[in-house]
Amino acid sequence: MARKFFVGGNFKMNGTIESIKGIVKNLNDAKLDPNTEVVIAPPALYLLLVREHLKNGIEVAAQNVFDKPNGAFTGEISVSQLKDSGINWTILGHSERRTILGESDKVVASKTKFATEGGISVIWCCGESLEDREAGKTIEVIEKQLAAVSPKIGDWKKVVIAYEPIWAIGTGKVATVQQAQEVHAAIRKWLKANVSETVAAETRILYGGSVNGKNCKELAKEEDIDGFLVGGASLKPEFVDIINASQ
Ligand code: PEP
Q: Residue 97 Cα, ligand 1 centroid: separation in angstroms?
């Protein structure tokens, strides 16, 4: 089965009602490759606004979700609340949540289980720090992150993997095509050995880390790069070029 190209936009904690409406209008008016699946993740406060204004065919993602059904969890949002609002995706395990908010592999795995079992698809992020890479530990770190989440996933059709080297996020320092392809191939190899041949063949593996309108086409040509998770550039008109990168 061919893997459909996938582009996610992670707005992080950016935007206003006005600017986010502008991004939505730009996407609604643009000619987007029908062979690319597009999902955008605004801050929680704007999820409903985006869902209301965005054209059908583009999905909306939360940037996080909690792993309890409901109750006294101040500041959190549940899987069923996302579904109730027409939000069918969430990002989980983003390195900013792992490093700044202290989310462990175990917490990310539990949230991934809760989301997928509750019917929400997950853009699950992994990636190494500069220190890990310089110590030659990139693959070891990614495999540890995969090993924590994998037993919690019953339905891999509900998961796309985003490989995001921490040193490339928001730094303007994009991984080389070879560096990205090497890790993507290693992730696929791990899935084949530890989950199944089918899951390895069908799971989309996205690259994230300073992707922009200029570098996206070259990255998109690689065999194991099935799309992108885009931060900064998802707020700009060039996001459309990234969506159309595999054309
Ligand atoms: C991200 O936050 O997921 C990301 C990839 O950010 P940027 O594209 O800005 O590096």
A: 13
